[in-house]
Amino acid sequence: MLLEADQILSVRIAEYWISEPQKEKGMPSFKVRFIKTVCDDTGGEHRACQAAFKVDAASLSAAAQQAETHFCRQKSVSDWTSDADVLELRTSPA
Fold first, then answer.
1. Coil, strand or helix at 87
2. Average confidence score pLDDT of the chain
3. 21/72: higher pLDDT
4. Burial level of 67, CB count in 10 A (0-12/13-18/19+)?
5. How does DSSP classify residue 82?
6. How far apart are CA 53 and CA 63, in angstroms?
7. In the structure, what pLDDT confidence band is assigned to residue 54 with cuts at 50, 70 and 90?
8. pTM
9. CA 71 – CA 7 distance, rounded (Å)
10. Could you read off the pLDDT of 3-34 as tens digits, one per residue?
């Protein structure tokens, strides 16, 4: 999948995949979260959710592109990687 970045990005996908019967019911939904790793005052790292969206799209790639557009519009930025390190995609349960 193509994602923006010169950074290394990790994409996590839920354990289940969209089955053929689900595709026939209509366009699948995806839960998309933009995550930033931040350090606390003791040097410990924590994952902070910067934004979350539910997106209806035909594929993971299309869902990622839609979510990137929403994120950039909401945050008034041209590149989502300025505010987040990771784009996390999950298929919504049937």
1. strand
2. 76
3. 72
4. buried
5. G
6. 10
7. very high
8. 0.68
9. 18
10. 333 333 344 333 333 334 444 467 889 999 99
SS3 at position 40: coil
Q: What tokens were used for 40? A: 């606390």
CA dist 74 and 51 (Å) reads 9
- What is the DSSP code (8-state) at residue 26? S
Smallest CA-to-CA distance from 56 within 48, 43, 65 is with: 65
| CA R_g for the chain | 14
Give pLDDT, residue 90. 87
CA distances from 78 to 8, 16, 17, 23, 47 (A): 19, 32, 31, 32, 22
For tokens 């999948």, name the residue.
1
pLDDT for the residue numbered 17: 38
**Class of residue 76 by CB neighbours under 10 A (exposed 0-12, middle 13-18, buried 19+):** exposed
With the CA atoms of 64, 70, 73 and 78 taken in that order, what torsion angle do they form, in degrees rounded to the nearest 10? Answer: 0
